[in-house]
Here is the input.
Amino acid sequence: MSPDPKAGGPPAERDPVSTSQMVNAEATAVAGYRQEAFSSESSESPFPLPDLIARYKEVMPGLEERLITLIESQHKHRISMEKKEQDAEIKDGEEFRAAAIADLKADRLERYRGQWFGFTLGSIAILGAVVTAAFDKPAISALIGGGGIATLATAFIYSRHQKAKIAAQSKDAEDK
Here is the structure.
């Protein structure tokens, strides 16, 4: 948080307009009344106005060089801080991308395992149905075969339903 420009502080930390603002006050006393006149000059530059620099030079020789050095060092510091901020944003983006890739790989591995487990379960159910049918047990054969296939179909349909639900939630979140 930057300091309040009206609070003072080093010239490089103040607002550029107020940095180079110059106010002259002239007071005259006439018959008990006091009259004051003010004038001001301002610049958008972080450097003081030339005539203000000349006044600084009269009051304290070498002050103008110190002011310029201070402003230049503040400028260099600001540039280095902005570069560090950009580097941090880039690093955060790279870390996020790496985490997203790792999540995609984990999801792919999970789907791969699920497909193999489903294939194995389906194969065992069909094999069990064939074996029980071979032993002349058609009701048990139908129960084992039908149950295995119904379980796989239910898992497949439930998986598709969950994906559609997640996609709808993502779309609603993007719309808001």
Remarks:
- Residues 105-175 form one domain.
- The CA atoms of residues 154 and 160 lie 10 Å apart.
- The longest helix spans residues 63-134.
- The chain has two domains: 5-90, 105-175.
